[in-house]
Amino acid sequence: MEKFTLINKTRSRIKVFEPFEESSKNPSMVNAILISYGCVLKRSSKPVLKGSRVESIEEARQEYKKLLEEGWEKTYRFNSFF
Question: CB under 8 Å, gap of 24 or more: what pairs does 61-69 form?
Answer without folding.
Answer: 63/35, 64/4, 64/6, 64/17, 67/6, 67/15, 68/6
